[in-house]
Design goal:
- The protein has a domain at 2-61: YefM-like fold.
- The chain has a 3-stranded mixed beta sheet with strand order 1-2-3.
- It contains 3 helices and 3 strands.
- The mean pLDDT is 81.
- It has helices at residues 8-13, 15-25, 47-61; strands spanning 2-7, 27-33, 36-41.
- It is an alpha+beta fold and 91 residues long.
- The chain is elongated and about 80 Å long.
- A hairpin with a 2-residue loop joins β2 (27-33) and β3 (36-41).
Length: 91
């Protein structure tokens, strides 16, 4: 998505035309006051587009552990029977 920066005064003068531009061109508009960003105007996405964006963000955050195949399903102990495991010391 392309980004355009515009001063608040110019945004105020051409607000309706700028909103049309944002919607038609899938444009992000950053409004500034005295050179500092104060607002961002972005197009509203349809339900399918929103879902695609959410899924893309989720895929970026999911990390697959690196290891040997089957490592996650391997037993955490070499002992196979509970009664053979060492007993916890009581206080």
């Amino acid at each position: 998505m392309a980004t355009k920066t515009i001063p608040a005064g110019l945004f105020k003068q051409g607000c309706l035309a700028l909103l049309d531009e944002v919607a038609e061109q899938n444009l992000e508009l950053v409004v500034t006051k005295r050179g500092r960003p104060v607002a961002r105007v972005v197009p509203i996405l349809g339900a399918r587009q929103q879902e695609a964006v959410i899924l893309a963000h989720m895929r970026e955050r999911v990390r697959v552990p690196v290891g040997r195949p089957g490592e996650l399903m391997a037993p955490s102990s070499t002992l196979t029977r509970w009664d053979l495991m060492p007993k916890a010391k009581s206080r």
